[in-house]
């Protein structure tokens, strides 16, 4: 027994490590697209950066807006960074003209995308850069993409100019399809976009197609924000939260602007606990006023989400899609009652008109504590137009429980963590050079039950910046699982029977309640020789097995709790080919109050229907109505059929068999 337990422990341990690695931001298959920015020169640069712990071969299939695919093969040596540059005119999605004019690539399926495959695990980063505007993002591998997202962005802006000329900077996002016939439902946070009205719309995308949505911006609606938009699909998609060129925060004084880009995690990987470290400021940072600081944005996916900061009272995010924005002056701990998405938007520079000061907005997703890893391969990007670096500072910030020891960056031990106020967590800033970096930590056993640490990567140049999370796990957190059970039933032939499907158990009841599920559609499958369902016009008989039928069975309800009946099959028990047989239930869709499908992991425990009173005590059936009929015909020696009971030499024919008899 001890040996068996040791083997089991070893197997489970191996599975845990493999799962953690498999669900990280490293992978072998990636899809990217490039959102638009407001270009200030003709030197715009689109790049991807590749890095790997092991030497590997990588294939890059770049499809242009004309649908032409160019395939490039690169070798990425262990620990090095490989940059691949793309033509802006062919691969960057085109922004609309504002307030009227060309719609650009807004809200149409555009063929442009970048598909990357590798023989070994790699990390991939994207970058959009022009003079005085740039950002970069961590690309997520295809295997961690999901079916439901909420957009994180920033409010649009409108700037009036000389003689009535104005400039428009919209909030935006991009969807990338990974499979053909991908159906995407959008529920916008706004009543209109650059293209038109209506909050709800459905689109169809094929593999490798991209879809850009931009907010409507005008002098009367200057700060429209697509943050909170819900995106649901029937197949895995990638989603980029973005902004054409944001000023952060939105203050009365004009400042420099920067494109925002970050690939967003699907809702089922969001967490409830976060620590948000302050970013290390550029060496020449200047603060124009008290509120001239980076901001934190907290986004709710469920109604009635309460959020606490630094252990204080709870702030209510009443509706799904609500945002709580706060200044990032010091480190903050955030705890929510339901899963949320947390991001930093770095601050603008140049509020005094000096473009030589370093820094500018960038969008950085904060990993939840529940998704920390123990090691990360990251890249501090260094695009070099004209062979000159554009960033003069690169930083890595790590954050973990104060009890964590042994964090190392590129083999160098990280000094003691700086504590967050009123928290058991701390952070450290490490200045690095451009290129590939490896950060790791032992898995600590702490009072916080936290394994690993969080990491952010960012950098600054004159009126420029980039920033992104250094990685995270993508486990499906706080997602409810429902176990349904078909209740066993029994009755005698001719009796009515009512077979119930009930909720047997639920995990994460609070998350289930937040989904506001109000309807179940499904089908019951049964042996049609022992059960005749009520309303014979409903069943559809199986083409594989004529003895099995199916009938629609579901219900609507106001809440979903353990023990509730969610489906019922009514019918009459009859004599059939079995004394008892399985009744199976197949879940079709769970629907919310808006009649939208809600993805919920569901398992079903099948039931048994037993026909009573048709067997002797030894289990032998009294009568089997499905057995073949025994029909015997009797003939005399002259071949004439004679009545049963005739005497003499006769011949009996039964199912084609002839047997002589003498009576």
How is this fold's topology laid out?
Layout: H1 2-22, E1 27-32, E2 45-51, E3 56-63, E4 69-76, E5 81-86, H2 88-91, E6 113-130, E7 133-138, E8 146-150, E9 157-160, E10 166-169, E11 171-177, E12 182-187, E13 200-205, E14 210-214, E15 230-246, E16 258-263, E17 271-276, E18 295-300, E19 305-309, E20 314-317, E21 323-327, E22 332-345, E23 363-365, E24 375-380, E25 393-401, E26 408-409, E27 412-413, E28 418-419, E29 425-432, E30 435-440, E31 454-461, E32 464-469, E33 481-486, E34 489-491, E35 496-506, H3 509-514, E36 517-527, E37 531-533, E38 540-541, E39 548-552, E40 555-556, E41 565-573, E42 580-592, E43 597-598, E44 601-605, E45 607-611, E46 632-635, E47 649-654, E48 657-662
Parallel strand pairs: 33-44, 34-45
Antiparallel strand pairs: 1-6, 2-5, 2-6, 3-4, 3-6, 6-7, 8-15, 9-10, 11-14, 11-15, 12-13, 12-15, 15-16, 17-22, 18-21, 18-22, 19-20, 19-22, 22-23, 24-30, 25-29, 25-31, 26-27, 26-30, 28-29, 31-32, 33-35, 35-41, 36-39, 36-40, 36-42, 37-41, 38-39, 42-43, 42-45, 46-47, 47-48
Model description:
There is one protein chain. With 663 residues, the chain is mainly beta. It has three domains: 23-469, no CATH class; 481-611, Immunoglobulin-like, CATH 2.60.40; 632-662, no CATH class. The protein contains three helices and 48 strands. Strands 34, 36, 38, 39, 40, 42, 43 and 45 form an eight-stranded mixed beta sheet that branches. The chain is elongated. The model is unreliable at 1-22 and 537-545 (pLDDT under 50).
